[in-house]
Every structure is written in C-alpha cells, then in structure tokens.
Amino acid sequence: MAEHGRVETVISPRRLFLLLKRDLVHGYGAILIAMAAVGGVMLLFSFLSMLGGAGREFYSPFYGGLLFLGGFIFTSSVFREVHQPGPGQFYLTLPGTLIEKLVSKLLVSSVGFAAATLLFIGGVSAVSELINRAVFGSGHPLFNPVAPANLHAAALYLVFQSIYMLGSIWFRKVAFIKTVLAQSVLVIGLAIVAGVIFRLVLGSAFNGHNVNMGMFSRNFGPFTFNAPGSGAMAQGAQVFSTIARVAFWALLAPFCWVAAYFRLRETEV
Amino acid sequence: MIEIKDLTFGYGRQKLFDHLDLTLQKGNIYGLLGKNGAGKTTLLKLICGLRSAQAGSVRVLGHDAAFRPVHMLDDIFCVPEELFIPPVLPHVYASLYAPFYPRFNHDEFTRYLAELELEKDKKLSALSFGQKKKFTLAFALASGCRVLLLDEPTNGLDIPSKGQLRRLLARASREDRVIVISTHQVRDMENLIDPIIILDQGRIIFTQPMAEVTRRLSVRLEPTEPQGDSILYSDRTIGGWVSVRENTGPEETSIDLETLFNTVVTNPEKVGRLFGPVAAARTEVHNG
C-alpha cells in the first residue's frame, strides 16, 4: 500500500494502452521500412514466377518466412532498450507495472505480429494478383489468412515466440542468435536425455542400435513419433505424446512469460 | 519522503555502501556532492529502483524502491546523465509520456520550454546535448512528481541556460517535493542546493543545511599562508589565502560550495567532530 493510500493495480488498461502506443510510435518507422522491403520482394518474385507459369501456391512460404524468421528477429529486439543505459533507465522508471510492460511487449510481438503478418501477406497477395491478372491474364491462388494451415502456423508461432521473448530480456546483446543457439543446445540435450530414457525404459523394443518403428504413430504438436503398435512401447509413446503436447501447447509459453517477468523484475541498469 | 536504512550495496565483490542511513525530507533541494566514483549516481539509481540493495532498505514515498511500484514511479522523475531522447517532435513526446504522470502540468511544460528557449518544431533527436538536457529537465519539472532526482543537470548547458535552470528549480521547489541534485559543478548550483550531502568512498561524510555551515565555519581571506591546528582547510587564491576555521564568534561568513567540499573531503574527521557524528554515516537531515 502506498503512503497516499493508492492501491497498486496489476494491469491498468489505460497504462497498457499508453505503453502500446509508445512502442508503436517509436517502432513504426522500422515497421514501415520492413513492410515496404518484404512487400516489394513479394511483388517482384510473384511477377517473375508468373513467367514460369501460374496456378502454384506462392504466398505461403513468404508467410512462413515472415512469421517465423521475421517474428523471431522482431521479438528478440523488443526488450533491447532495457539493456541500454539511457533508454533502459527511462523505460524501467516509466510508470507502469512489470506486468503491463511485459504484456505490452507480448501483445505487439505475438498476437499483434501474427495478425499483422496474416493481414499484410493477404493484402500484398491481393495487390500482386491484381497486377498478375492484369498483365498475364492469370495468377497464383490468393493467400487466405483464415486457412487452417495458416492459422495453425500462427498458433505455432505464438508458442515458439515466447522463447524469443525470454531471450530478448535474458540476453543483453545479439539476443536472436544467442536464443537460437541456446534453443539448439536445449533441444540436443533434451533429445539425448529422451533417447537415454527410451533406451532404459523401453529396452525390449530395441534390437541392438535399431528400434522397431512404423507400426504406431502419434502426432503431438509439431512433432510426430512412431513406435510399434502394442505393448510397452505403444503405451510409452502414448504417454510421451500426451506429455509433450501438454508441455508444448500449455506450459512452454507460460513458463517463458513467467521467467521473462522475473528477469525483467531483476533487471538493473 | 526518502528513507535509506542500513543500506549495503556493491558492484561484484567491491562494496560501495556499507550500512548507510539517510533520510531526505520534503521541501528541500538537496545537493549531493562527491568525487568521481563516490557513489552519487548509484545512490540515485537505488532511490529510483534501478539498482536494488544487497542488504537494508530504500523506501521512497512509503514504497520499497527495489520493486519499482507504479505509484512510486508516477511520483518520481529521474534525469540521468545519459538521456533517452526519441526522434519525435516535442509535442509528440509530451503526448506519449505526459499521460503516465497523473499530475503533469502541460501549461507549465509549455512555459518551461519557452523559458529555456527550446524550439517546438524540431525533432528532439536533432537537438544538441544541452538542448536535450533542457528539454528533459523541463519535462521533469512539469511532471508534478514529488521526487525529482537530477544527475549532473548542468552538464552540457551553456552559461545563460545554467542561470535559467537555477531559476526554474527555485520556482519548482515546493513544500511537498524533494529535489536531489547530484553534481560536480558546484558553482552552478550555488545558493540553490541546501542541505548539502557529501559522499566519499561510499560513506556520507557530511550532511548539513547551509545555515548550520555558515554558523559553524568561518571563512577568511588572509595575506599569508595560515598556520595552526585550528585550520580546517586553506588554499591559495588571487589576493592571498582562503582559510576555513571553526567559527567561534557570533559573526557568520558565507562559504562557497567548492571551499566547503574541499574542507570536508580533506579533513573529514575534524569537520565531523565539529558538526557532530556525521562521519559515522548515520545521518538524518530535517530542514523545513
């Protein structure tokens, strides 16, 4: 409780809006330049590809590239100011709760970025196809922002993005590359641990260094796991797939957000 | 308004503050003086929550500063040496940041900008360092915050601007506000900062209101180098020697901040005995 009796609010919509507005106003120049560059490349490539024939799905790779590569690079930079003496001091003493500061950055770089990318690619594809049809009389299929595959990619982005957000607050410099490296090391480590556990727990399914695969298939999140269809191996695969799905869709992002919150709280300049 | 109790803080293994106590009361413009590395900037950072104590506490307006609570942040404004100035026009800056401060006064801000002769239609990033500083100071003074922390506010300011800033600060001083000015440029802040706090090697070796200083210290200009145990400080100057002694009579003499600072840092024990147990670092200043 404050000396003057005002109760601390965790999230004030007014301050959250002010933080979002501030981020957008300071970042709009870079956003416009990036959009112009990506849009220009898309228009050019779309036009050139028409010379080789129409009818192929053209825009999804751009969407995937912009969403994942562009989004991760953008997310890695959202807390860059916190690590710089002048801007960091200013930002950390700006009146706003830690949660407001975290949520404002999260909204811009996760839902905001994914929605903007869907709309942007949709818009550029519409313009591009108008040009193609005017020049060639035919064109590529239009990009559909609400196609299930595109929405699924956006959902995957929202989860993976949280890792890069944590990286942004964790690493002082070159956060994107360091997050990629840290993520790679973590994945390799987890793969080794999982391999050892599988070998120990499900040893009967192994034949020397080979494992009997292909009879059972489970899809969990972005991964697919194959194992024999009966016995301990199948049960193990089922349990593992459930754990992995829950961990990926329900736990990974909240874990990163909470870790980012504490890291932001401990940040000093 | 600001209460530091038993504060211990250091960088790595090197301790900067060891069991430091300090209470700052409203209605004052404190001058925080010290040599390079004495801990002035770090103390300001601890007050606004940019650093957290390793032991002890720093409370500002009743809040634990280390948690940077929002109702502390909207009542405290720190103007650091390294400024953050985004490339926007002054009115855009004000529209972005003034709403964060509930007591921000736009009329005052406009008046301060005019008094400091700042251009309204020039992007802030295009301003000189001194102009950026003046802009930030104008914003800080108009913020309505009850705690203002200014780190080297006159660095980079031209001579007329220093006078303007002094006048603005004097006007911005209020009964419910505490202003802490950390500076090396003591001459720029002459007749403005009071009480004086002197930090040396992480310890507060002096903290007194100027009235007490002039009551207890006597400053003289002497034709020859003064000698004797009663001398607290002496320095050659144009026309003779400036000497500082204990004032034993009813007459009061004025002392400039540079001489006071040199007196205290060259002879902290004697000055400490003269003014009381300030050198022991348990310090509280009540003035006004």
Oligomer class: heterodimer
Poorly predicted sequence stretches spanning 5 or more consecutive residues of chain A: 1-5, 214-218
Helix-and-strand structural type of chain A: mainly alpha
Tell how many strands the DSSP assignment of chain A holds: 4
Biggest sheet of chain A, in brief?
Answer: 2 strands, antiparallel
Q: Which chains have the largest interface? A: A-B, 33 and 32 residues
In the CATH hierarchy, the architecture of the largest domain in chain B is 3-Layer(aba) Sandwich
Strand content of chain B: 25-35%
How would you describe the shape of chain A?
flat
Distance from first to last alpha carbon of chain A: 26 Å
In percent, how helical is the residue content of chain A?
55-70%
Structural class of chain B: alpha/beta
Secondary-structure element series of chain B: EEEHEEHEHHHEHEEEHEEEHHE
Please estimate the helix content of chain B: 25-40%
Could you give the distance between the termini of chain B? 13 Å
The Rg value of chain A, from CA coordinates, equals 23 Å
Strands of the largest sheet of chain A, in order across it? Answer: 1-2
